[in-house]
Amino acid sequence: MPFTVTGAFDDGATYTVQITGRSDRPVIGSRRAAALVELHQGGPILLSPTGPRRSVAGDDEATVLAVLREYTHVVEEGPGAPRKARIPG
Q1: What is the pTM of this model?
Q2: Closest Cα partner for 38 from 52, 49, 28?
Q3: Is the pLDDT of residue 73 over 50?
């Protein structure tokens, strides 16, 4: 199910995108965010600070969101977004 993510890049540029869960177009709304996800497709990403590690795939909403969390400052995640794992302690 698609959901919305709002965030900012390191240079301060902001974005609002929809993560679609589609392999042909995993991110809609920002060419820069889409390019970032495309750049990391097939590579490993941690879904949370403690894992697990999975390969980034356009049809895997959790890995697409993990790329945005890792390489940008995510400000808000809309309803339906996979939640971060809690770190014990």
Answers
A1: 0.89
A2: 28
A3: yes
